[in-house]
Amino acid sequence: MARTARISSLNDALSQTTIGVTVIFNDGVGTISAAAPSNLGGVDIPRTLSASWCKQQGLKDEAGSSVVLRSITGPNVALISLGSGASNAESLRLGGAGAFRAAGEGSIAVLLATNELGDPAGAAQAFVEGALLASYNFKNNDSEASIDIVPIGVPLPTVPVHDAITKGVERGVTIANAVNWAKFLIDSPAGHLPPKELAKAIDDRLENDAHVKVEIWTESKIKEERLGGLLGVGQGSAQPTRLVYATYDPKPGSPLPHVALVGKGVTFDSGGLSLKSPEGMMAMKTDMSGAAIVMSVLSMASRLALNVKVTAIAPLTENLVGDKATKPGDVLTIRNGMTIEVLNTDAEGRLILADGLSLAVETNADTIIDVATLTGAQNVALGDEVGAMFASNDELASLLAAASERSGEALWRMPLVENYESHIESDVADMKNIGKPPKAGSISAALLLRRFTNGRPWAHLDIAGPGRADATRGYQTKGATAFTARTLVEYLAALAK
């Protein structure tokens, strides 16, 4: 994935296929920065665009809308809407996506007026993120998509502002490419990336990251480590189960904040003996989204050189219907010794996360966060654009909510209702793996997971809905989304400060 962005000059921009000029709207009237040249490649650039002209040309006051003015003698000029403001990170991401799509198959350089930006580094990061996220295409993953950013201003941008934009561009490239890497893993056919191959793909990326160590646990190691939930889910498949255990520690021995991330890694979920419908299985190659997300976040932490320690744990398995498959009524023993009665083999994610969370507790991390495409109930409650956040304390919930606001990935805090603990009581084990269908399914799953966190600060992000997109919208392309990857790196960056 050779997608990139760079700082460029106005002279260099004239050699690109398209030059992008941002437009800010107020009451339907578009305004172009006075810092933009009055003529680009033979195309006159006015300072204002009337509401009637914008309507006629199809340029809307919605961020990401664009219109391309074609030129015969020079580069095309794309007018790119940032909506009502250039200081809103989400508007800038949408603007970046609009710029990328306006370029079509060609290259584009975008003039970014620095005098309109409250936070030049953050603005440049957001714009580049949006452009490169929108550039993702599973079938054309090796394309060399790129975008140039040209800082302009009246007066000209100062050296500190120019340096801030350069830093923002670099950060945007790092984040977008890591997210696109996770999306590529998630979109890959399950037959191409069973647990063994997925573990190798993760190792191949992380081995190039500074201060990162990776262990891949085979089935013999998993048995030695007593991961009964992971083994129980995987025993119906001929594909061997794996667990990836990665650490990023930039200053060993120093008292850095330590966060343990656990990601659900079911590379294909048939439902097991509690078989899904054919329609319900169609997207189940993406049930390893959590694993791809937490590993991409660890990679980002390294490549951004964040001053925080991260442990990422990804149990990887298939949930199939072989002759050794776990049966409804079976009891599995998790690493910490607690037992779970399996009444529905399609509620398998919480079984492997229980082992992962038990391992996370043993790291003595300050905070534990798990990510999973866990319950259909989340999708029913919040749809496919908002993720469910469960948190054991208000401080952690507030930090994640703030990170979510900055990333543009919407999270809604859900309650951990103590009375619903009774929903998962079992007659033959410490708990059962389902609650009282169809009641509070995402809550009962979260309550089960909480039992494996040993009272530590913990958050559970259920992304069953927003983990996949049925259609392209904004900078989000159809298919895998790697939802919460950018939120988690924002959270880690805030901790590092």
Outline:
The protein has 497 residues and is an alpha/beta fold.
Summarize this structure as a short list of keywords or feature phrases.
497 residues, alpha/beta, Leucine Aminopeptidase, subunit E, domain 1, Aminopeptidase, 2 domains, 9-stranded mixed sheet, 15 helices, 34% helix, elongated
Counting structural domains, the number is 2
Radius of gyration, whole Å: 24 Å
The CATH class of the largest domain turns out to be Alpha Beta
Rounded average pLDDT: 96
Q: How would you describe the overall organization of this protein?
A:
- The relative contact order is 0.11.
- The chain has helices spanning 10-13, 51-57, 89-103, 120-134, 159-187, 195-206, 219-224, 228-234, 278-281, 289-303, 349-362, 376-382, 394-407, 441-450, 485-496, and strands spanning 4-7, 18-26, 29-31, 39-40, 43-44, 48-49, 66-69, 76-81, 108-113, 146-152, 212-217, 242-248, 258-263, 265-269, 309-319, 330-333, 339-342, 367-372, 387-391, 411-413, 431-432, 458-462, 468-469, 479-480.
- The radius of gyration is 24 Å and the shape is elongated.
- The chain is of the alpha/beta class and 497 residues long.
- The mean pLDDT is 96.
- The longest helix is centred in the middle third of the chain and has 29 residues, at 159-187.
- The strands form five sheets. Strands 11, 12, 13, 14, 15, 18, 19, 20 and 22 form a nine-stranded mixed beta sheet that branches. Strands 1, 2, 3, 6, 7, 8, 9 and 10 form an eight-stranded mixed beta sheet that branches. Strands 16-17-21 form a three-stranded mixed beta sheet.
- It folds into two domains: 4-177, Leucine Aminopeptidase, subunit E, domain 1; 188-496, 3-Layer(aba) Sandwich (Aminopeptidase).
- The chain starts with a strand and ends with a helix.
- 34% of the residues lie in helices and 23% in strands.
- The protein is built from 15 helices and 24 strands.
- Helix 5 packs antiparallel against helix 10 (289-303).
- Strand 16 and strand 17 (339-342) form a beta hairpin.
